DNA sequence: AACCGCCCCAACCGCTGTGGT
DNA sequence: AACCACAGCGGTTGGGGCGGT
Protein backbone atom coordinates (compact mmCIF):
# COMPACT_ATOMS: atom_id res chain seq x y z
CA UNK A 1 0.00 0.00 0.00
CA UNK A 2 2.29 2.65 1.30
CA UNK A 3 4.95 0.53 -0.23
CA UNK A 4 7.65 2.83 -1.44
CA UNK A 5 9.26 2.11 -4.69
CA UNK A 6 11.90 -0.53 -4.43
CA UNK A 7 15.37 0.86 -4.61
CA UNK A 8 17.77 -0.45 -7.17
CA UNK A 9 21.25 0.27 -8.27
CA UNK A 10 24.42 0.89 -6.34
CA UNK A 11 24.33 0.72 -2.59
CA UNK A 12 25.18 3.68 -0.45
CA UNK A 13 27.40 3.51 2.57
CA UNK A 14 24.43 4.06 4.80
CA UNK A 15 22.54 1.25 3.27
CA UNK A 16 25.52 -0.96 3.79
CA UNK A 17 25.69 -0.02 7.42
CA UNK A 18 22.07 -0.75 7.89
CA UNK A 19 22.27 -4.05 6.17
CA UNK A 20 25.29 -5.12 8.12
CA UNK A 21 23.64 -4.28 11.35
CA UNK A 22 20.48 -6.17 10.58
CA UNK A 23 22.37 -9.16 9.40
CA UNK A 24 24.25 -8.98 12.64
CA UNK A 25 20.98 -9.06 14.46
CA UNK A 26 19.05 -11.57 12.49
CA UNK A 27 21.61 -13.63 10.72
CA UNK A 28 22.24 -14.02 7.06
CA UNK A 29 19.21 -16.05 6.23
CA UNK A 30 15.91 -14.35 6.25
CA UNK A 31 16.51 -11.88 3.53
CA UNK A 32 12.98 -10.90 2.82
CA UNK A 33 12.45 -10.28 6.45
CA UNK A 34 15.64 -8.29 6.78
CA UNK A 35 14.74 -6.27 3.75
CA UNK A 36 11.46 -5.37 5.30
CA UNK A 37 12.43 -4.57 8.84
CA UNK A 38 15.59 -2.76 7.92
CA UNK A 39 13.70 -0.10 6.11
CA UNK A 40 15.96 -0.42 3.16
CA UNK A 41 13.68 -0.28 0.22
CA UNK A 42 15.45 -3.20 -1.30
CA UNK A 43 14.35 -6.65 -2.15
CA UNK A 44 15.52 -9.54 -0.09
CA UNK A 45 17.41 -10.72 -3.06
CA UNK A 46 19.24 -7.50 -3.40
CA UNK A 47 20.17 -7.53 0.26
CA UNK A 48 21.46 -11.03 0.04
CA UNK A 49 23.51 -10.25 -3.01
CA UNK A 50 25.02 -7.23 -1.40
CA UNK A 51 25.91 -9.16 1.67
CA UNK A 52 27.29 -12.18 -0.05
CA UNK A 53 29.25 -10.36 -2.68
CA UNK A 54 30.44 -7.34 -0.86
CA UNK A 55 29.74 -6.94 2.81
CA UNK A 56 30.53 -10.35 4.14
CA UNK A 57 33.50 -10.04 6.44
CA UNK A 58 35.12 -13.13 5.10
CA UNK A 59 35.60 -11.82 1.64
CA UNK A 60 39.11 -11.75 0.36
CA UNK A 61 39.11 -9.35 -2.52
CA UNK A 62 42.08 -8.72 -4.62
CA UNK A 63 43.99 -10.83 -6.99
CA UNK A 64 43.37 -14.46 -7.26
CA UNK A 65 46.40 -16.38 -6.28
CA UNK A 66 47.88 -18.75 -8.83
CA UNK A 67 46.64 -21.52 -6.62
CA UNK A 68 43.14 -20.21 -6.75
CA UNK A 69 43.32 -19.76 -10.46
CA UNK A 70 44.40 -23.29 -10.91
CA UNK A 71 41.71 -24.51 -8.66
CA UNK A 72 39.07 -22.64 -10.56
CA UNK A 73 40.22 -24.20 -13.77
CA UNK A 74 40.26 -27.62 -12.29
CA UNK A 75 36.91 -27.33 -10.65
CA UNK A 76 35.33 -25.85 -13.69
CA UNK A 77 36.52 -28.72 -15.75
CA UNK A 78 34.90 -30.93 -13.24
CA UNK A 79 31.67 -29.15 -12.49
CA UNK A 80 31.14 -26.70 -15.28
CA UNK A 81 29.44 -23.45 -14.49
CA UNK A 82 28.54 -24.34 -10.97
CA UNK A 83 29.91 -21.15 -9.68
CA UNK A 84 28.56 -21.30 -6.22
CA UNK A 85 29.84 -24.79 -5.82
CA UNK A 86 33.23 -23.80 -7.05
CA UNK A 87 33.19 -20.79 -4.82
CA UNK A 88 32.74 -22.98 -1.83
CA UNK A 89 36.10 -24.43 -2.46
CA UNK A 90 37.72 -21.05 -2.60
CA UNK A 91 37.60 -19.47 0.80
CA UNK A 92 36.73 -15.83 0.61
CA UNK A 93 35.74 -15.87 -3.01
CA UNK A 94 32.22 -15.43 -4.23
CA UNK A 95 30.49 -17.12 -7.07
CA UNK A 96 30.08 -13.79 -8.73
CA UNK A 97 33.76 -13.11 -8.51
CA UNK A 98 34.67 -16.45 -9.93
CA UNK A 99 32.10 -16.11 -12.62
CA UNK A 100 33.50 -12.78 -13.62
CA UNK A 101 37.00 -14.11 -13.52
CA UNK A 102 36.09 -16.99 -15.73
CA UNK A 103 34.28 -14.81 -18.16
CA UNK A 104 37.22 -12.52 -18.49
CA UNK A 105 39.53 -15.41 -18.93
CA UNK A 106 37.42 -16.93 -21.64
CA UNK A 107 37.16 -13.68 -23.44
CA UNK A 108 40.84 -13.26 -23.45
CA UNK A 109 41.29 -16.70 -24.75
CA UNK A 110 38.81 -16.10 -27.47
CA UNK A 111 40.65 -13.00 -28.45
CA UNK A 112 43.97 -14.68 -28.41
CA UNK A 113 42.60 -17.39 -30.55
CA UNK A 114 41.20 -14.94 -32.99
CA UNK A 115 44.42 -13.12 -33.24
CA UNK A 116 46.21 -16.36 -33.68
CA UNK A 117 43.95 -17.25 -36.51
CA UNK A 118 44.23 -13.84 -38.02
CA UNK A 119 47.90 -14.29 -38.19
CA UNK A 120 47.00 -17.62 -39.54
CA UNK A 121 50.10 -18.32 -41.50
CA UNK A 122 52.06 -18.75 -38.34
CA UNK A 123 49.86 -19.34 -35.41
CA UNK A 124 51.77 -17.77 -32.64
CA UNK A 125 49.68 -19.14 -29.86
CA UNK A 126 49.10 -22.80 -30.02
CA UNK A 127 46.25 -22.85 -27.66
CA UNK A 128 46.27 -26.55 -27.81
CA UNK A 129 48.90 -26.81 -25.22
CA UNK A 130 46.77 -27.55 -22.31
CA UNK A 131 48.06 -26.14 -19.12
CA UNK A 132 50.66 -24.06 -20.73
CA UNK A 133 50.63 -21.11 -18.51
CA UNK A 134 49.44 -18.14 -20.41
CA UNK A 135 50.06 -15.04 -18.50
CA UNK A 136 47.47 -12.73 -19.77
CA UNK A 137 49.20 -9.75 -18.45
CA UNK A 138 46.16 -7.69 -18.81
CA UNK A 139 47.32 -4.23 -18.28
CA UNK A 140 44.27 -3.25 -16.36
CA UNK A 141 44.09 -2.67 -12.69
CA UNK A 142 47.37 -4.19 -11.98
CA UNK A 143 47.17 -2.45 -8.68
CA UNK A 144 43.61 -1.61 -8.41
CA UNK A 145 41.90 -1.58 -5.06
CA UNK A 146 39.89 -4.67 -5.62
CA UNK A 147 42.70 -6.11 -7.46
CA UNK A 148 42.49 -7.69 -10.77
CA UNK A 149 42.92 -11.15 -11.78
CA UNK A 150 45.24 -12.56 -14.21
CA UNK A 151 44.65 -15.65 -16.07
CA UNK A 152 45.78 -18.88 -14.78
CA UNK A 153 46.31 -21.69 -17.12
CA UNK A 154 45.12 -22.85 -20.37
CA UNK A 155 42.53 -25.45 -20.95
CA UNK A 156 39.45 -25.18 -22.94
CA UNK A 157 36.27 -25.64 -21.10
CA UNK A 158 34.17 -23.17 -22.75
CA UNK A 159 31.36 -23.15 -20.41
CA UNK A 160 30.20 -26.47 -19.66
CA UNK A 161 33.29 -28.30 -19.24
CA UNK A 162 31.21 -30.18 -16.86
CA UNK A 163 30.39 -32.73 -19.40
CA UNK A 164 32.80 -35.10 -17.88
CA UNK A 165 31.34 -35.64 -14.49
CA UNK A 166 29.14 -32.74 -14.03
CA UNK A 167 25.95 -33.97 -12.58
CA UNK A 168 27.65 -36.93 -11.20
CA UNK A 169 28.50 -34.44 -8.60
CA UNK A 170 30.52 -37.40 -7.92
CA UNK A 171 32.13 -35.72 -5.02
CA UNK A 172 34.94 -37.78 -6.20
CA UNK A 173 36.91 -35.15 -4.61
CA UNK A 174 39.07 -37.66 -3.02
CA UNK A 175 40.66 -38.81 -6.19
CA UNK A 176 41.30 -35.37 -7.35
CA UNK A 177 44.80 -34.76 -8.41
CA UNK A 178 45.12 -31.70 -6.35
CA UNK A 179 45.48 -33.12 -2.98
CA UNK A 180 47.65 -30.40 -1.72
CA UNK A 181 45.23 -27.73 -2.63
CA UNK A 182 42.35 -29.62 -1.18
CA UNK A 183 44.10 -30.10 2.05
CA UNK A 184 44.90 -26.49 2.08
CA UNK A 185 41.33 -25.57 1.56
CA UNK A 186 39.96 -28.05 3.99
CA UNK A 187 42.19 -26.67 6.61
CA UNK A 188 41.23 -23.15 5.95
CA UNK A 189 37.62 -24.12 6.03
CA UNK A 190 37.95 -25.79 9.35
CA UNK A 191 39.74 -22.84 10.74
CA UNK A 192 37.31 -20.35 9.52
CA UNK A 193 34.02 -21.89 10.13
CA UNK A 194 33.17 -19.94 13.14
CA UNK A 195 31.59 -16.92 11.75
CA UNK A 196 29.59 -15.05 14.25
CA UNK A 197 26.96 -13.38 12.24
CA UNK A 198 25.17 -16.14 10.59
CA UNK A 199 24.80 -19.77 10.73
CA UNK A 200 26.39 -19.94 7.40
CA UNK A 201 25.27 -22.94 5.56
CA UNK A 202 27.43 -25.84 4.80
CA UNK A 203 28.59 -24.15 1.73
CA UNK A 204 29.26 -20.71 2.82
CA UNK A 205 32.94 -20.76 3.13
CA UNK A 206 33.43 -17.13 3.40
CA UNK A 207 35.98 -17.36 6.02
CA UNK A 208 36.00 -14.91 8.79
CA UNK A 209 39.26 -13.13 8.79
CA UNK A 210 40.83 -12.04 11.93
CA UNK A 211 38.44 -9.19 11.90
CA UNK A 212 39.10 -7.12 8.88
CA UNK A 213 39.61 -3.59 9.91
CA UNK A 214 37.15 -2.31 7.39
CA UNK A 215 34.59 -4.59 8.85
CA UNK A 216 35.19 -3.36 12.32
CA UNK A 217 35.09 0.15 11.12
CA UNK A 218 31.85 -0.52 9.40
CA UNK A 219 30.29 -2.16 12.37
CA UNK A 220 31.42 0.51 14.72
CA UNK A 221 29.88 3.14 12.55
CA UNK A 222 26.71 1.22 12.53
CA UNK A 223 26.45 1.18 16.21
CA UNK A 224 26.98 4.88 16.28
CA UNK A 225 24.46 5.39 13.57
CA UNK A 226 21.89 3.36 15.35
CA UNK A 227 22.52 5.20 18.51
CA UNK A 228 22.32 8.57 16.98
CA UNK A 229 19.52 8.06 14.63
CA UNK A 230 17.80 5.48 16.69
CA UNK A 231 17.00 3.66 13.54
CA UNK A 232 13.68 2.09 14.10
CA UNK A 233 15.43 0.25 16.85
CA UNK A 234 14.76 -3.28 15.77
CA UNK A 235 15.46 -4.54 19.20
CA UNK A 236 12.25 -3.15 20.41
CA UNK A 237 10.25 -4.55 17.62
CA UNK A 238 8.19 -7.63 17.81
CA UNK A 239 10.38 -8.97 15.08
CA UNK A 240 13.12 -9.32 17.49
CA UNK A 241 11.10 -11.50 19.75
CA UNK A 242 9.71 -13.40 16.90
CA UNK A 243 13.17 -14.35 15.93
CA UNK A 244 14.78 -14.85 19.20
CA UNK A 245 12.03 -16.29 21.14
C1' DA B 1 43.48 17.67 -23.08
C1' DA B 2 39.92 15.23 -25.04
C1' DC B 3 38.09 11.30 -26.90
C1' DC B 4 37.54 6.37 -27.56
C1' DG B 5 37.60 1.66 -26.59
C1' DC B 6 38.36 -1.98 -23.44
C1' DC B 7 37.99 -4.25 -19.16
C1' DC B 8 36.29 -5.25 -14.63
C1' DC B 9 32.99 -5.43 -11.22
C1' DA B 10 28.62 -4.79 -9.03
C1' DA B 11 24.01 -5.49 -9.47
C1' DC B 12 19.78 -7.07 -11.63
C1' DC B 13 16.77 -10.59 -13.75
C1' DG B 14 14.66 -14.87 -14.41
C1' DC B 15 14.54 -19.58 -13.25
C1' DT B 16 14.93 -23.49 -10.12
C1' DG B 17 15.06 -25.77 -5.72
C1' DT B 18 13.44 -26.31 -1.10
C1' DG B 19 10.77 -25.99 2.99
C1' DG B 20 6.52 -24.87 5.20
C1' DT B 21 1.48 -24.91 5.37
C1' DA C 1 -0.54 -33.63 -2.88
C1' DA C 2 -0.77 -28.98 -4.10
C1' DC C 3 0.36 -24.48 -3.36
C1' DC C 4 3.06 -20.64 -1.80
C1' DA C 5 6.99 -18.05 -0.29
C1' DC C 6 11.62 -17.59 0.07
C1' DA C 7 16.49 -18.65 -0.84
C1' DG C 8 19.92 -19.61 -4.05
C1' DC C 9 21.99 -19.97 -8.60
C1' DG C 10 23.57 -18.78 -13.19
C1' DG C 11 23.31 -15.55 -16.97
C1' DT C 12 23.45 -10.92 -18.41
C1' DT C 13 24.06 -6.01 -18.40
C1' DG C 14 25.41 -1.22 -17.27
C1' DG C 15 28.54 2.01 -15.07
C1' DG C 16 32.92 3.54 -14.07
C1' DG C 17 37.83 3.54 -14.41
C1' DC C 18 42.04 3.10 -16.99
C1' DG C 19 45.09 3.08 -20.91
C1' DG C 20 45.94 4.25 -25.59
C1' DT C 21 45.60 7.42 -29.45
TrEMBL record:
This is Transcription factor MYB48. The gene is LOC106759316. Residues 139-153 have a biased composition (Basic and acidic residues). SUPFAM superfamilies: Homeodomain-like. Residues 108-176 are annotated as: Disordered. PANTHER family: MYB TRANSCRIPTION FACTOR-RELATED-RELATED (PTHR45675), TRANSCRIPTION FACTOR MYB48 (PTHR45675:SF7). Its main location: nucleus. It comes from the Eukaryota. Pfam families: Myb_DNA-binding (PF00249). CDD domains: SANT. The lineage of its organism: Eukaryota, Viridiplantae, Streptophyta, Embryophyta, Tracheophyta. PROSITE patterns: HTH_MYB, MYB_LIKE. GO terms for cellular component: nucleus. It is found in: Nucleus. Residues 166-176 have a biased composition (Acidic residues). One of its GO terms (molecular function) is DNA-binding transcription factor activity. Keywords: DNA-binding, Nucleus, Repeat, Transcription, Transcription regulation. It comes from Vigna radiata var. radiata.
Amino acid sequence: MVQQEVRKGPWTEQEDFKLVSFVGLFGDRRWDFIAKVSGLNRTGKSCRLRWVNYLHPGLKRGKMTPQEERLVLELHSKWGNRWSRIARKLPGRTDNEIKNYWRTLMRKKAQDKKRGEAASSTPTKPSSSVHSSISVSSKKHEVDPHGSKKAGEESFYDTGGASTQDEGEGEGEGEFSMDDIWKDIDMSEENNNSFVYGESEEGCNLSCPSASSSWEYCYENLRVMMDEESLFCPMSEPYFYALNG
